[in-house]
Target: Transcription elongation factor
Amino acid sequence: MNKAFTKEEDGSGPQRLPDLPISPHPNHVTPRGMAQLQARAEALEAEIARLRDNVDYLADGYPLAVAERDLRYVEARLASAILVAPPDGPVSHVSFGATVEVVDENGAAARYTIVGEDESDPGQHLIAAFSPLARALMEARVGDVVEWPKPTGTVDLEVTAIWFDASAELTGPRPPAQ
Model:
């Protein structure tokens, strides 16, 4: 029989799933992103310990294999993390970790925070630094109009405010709290 059609594992030990792919982009993280990765690693370690203590896991080792694979991924991301702290002084332009308020050509306002890949969540307006929107915003200053290339066409966005957190100095008028 062709080796491609045979099963490698004999079922005598726990499964080992293939590792998740690691992004080719630099692994820049905000302090919050680093804390999230560390918390995720701790949660996965606790889940692995719980699964190993459960004798029933031997019947179905898949949940353990998933948790171990995920922990390997998170540990690799932590090992390659490049922590980018917010600037100490006044904010003059958009950079990694910044929250940016913009207004589009129709007057609709939006806020986006430029974060690392593992922290990104477009639904929460947390955008990865290598995304088209983040690349359009990088280095912009309050009052600049940037072009955001979208599949439906280019959108002009005016930068109206830039900040890093509630205690950081704000360039432009402070937006109302959400």
Q: What stands out?
A: Helices lie at 31-53, 62-80, 132-137. The mean pLDDT is 86. The domain at 26-85 is CATH 1.10.287.180 (Helix Hairpins).
